[in-house]
Structure formats: C-alpha cells, structure tokens
Write a structure and sequence with these properties.
two-stranded antiparallel ribbon; 142 residues; mainly alpha; extended; single chain; 4 helices
C-alpha cells in the first residue's frame, strides 16, 4: 500500500473499468482512497458552516460561502505552516477550534497599544507556543 493509505477492514470496489487497465491495488489506492480524501475535505468545509446558505437573498448566501472558504484556506495554511510535526497536524476544524483557538484572554487597550494576556490555566500552552513559533519561522509566500 502507498504511504498514508490505511486499511482497517476488507474493501470491495465495484467498477466497470477493464482489469487490463488497473490492478486491484492501484485502483484502490489511486481512485477509491483519493475519492475518500476528497469526501473528508468536503466534510471539513461543511464544518466551517458552508452548508448554511438558508437566507432568501443570494448575496447573503454568497458572502457566507466566501467567509467559509476563506476560513478553510486559513485553516489549511495553519496546518501547513504551524501544525506540522504536532499532535494537531491532521486535526479536524472543531478540534483545532477547541484546543488551539478558544483561549480565555484579558484584553487591555492603551492609547496606541492593545495588550492581550492569555489565561495561565490554558492546558495547551506548550503546543500553542510551538505552533506560534513555527508560524513565525515559516517563509511568507503569496
């Protein structure tokens, strides 16, 4: 099996493709598993509320979909630049939100500065420091 392909139970793929074109293993890895990965990406996008386009106005539905798409891209950038090599490298959106982004903080605004003090009881402090350091060290690409 190729890298990243896990098999937990027997899988049967029914297809009309000719046996001469594809070996069983290549068909499973190249087509079936990649289709499953696409399904996971669609599920992640719906976790960002992209499926809630329930207003009567087209523009409000469109802006909600834009916001969901931008959130997905930001999460992908966070995964690629900050989460590499951490326990959250393959985490789904709700897990990232809960463990990494939902942090109690105190905000103080002084004339030209905004001070943000994070809660000292935050259980993932070391992980947050590691992700933040990796994010800062990553090269900026546009």
């Amino acid at each position: 099996m190729g890298p990243g392909v896990e098999r937990c139970c027997p899988c049967f793929v029914v297809t009309s493709l000719a046996a001469e074109q594809w070996s069983a293993q290549a068909l499973y890895e190249a087509l079936h598993c990649t289709r499953g990965e696409m399904g996971k990406r669609i599920k992640e996008l719906s976790m960002l509320f992209s499926d809630r386009t329930s207003t009567a106005c087209l523009r409000s539905n469109q802006i909600r979909l834009y916001f969901s798409s931008v959130a997905y891209l930001l999460r992908q950038a966070l995964r690629r630049l900050g989460l590499q090599g951490t326990e959250l490298a393959k985490a789904q959106c709700p897990t990232l939100r809960l463990k990494l982004l939902k942090i109690g903080a105190l905000r103080r605004i002084i004339v030209r500065k905004v001070w943000v003090s994070l809660a000292s009881g935050y259980p993932y402090q070391e992980l947050f420091r590691q992700v933040y350091a990796q994010w800062q060290a990553a090269p900026l690409r546009c």
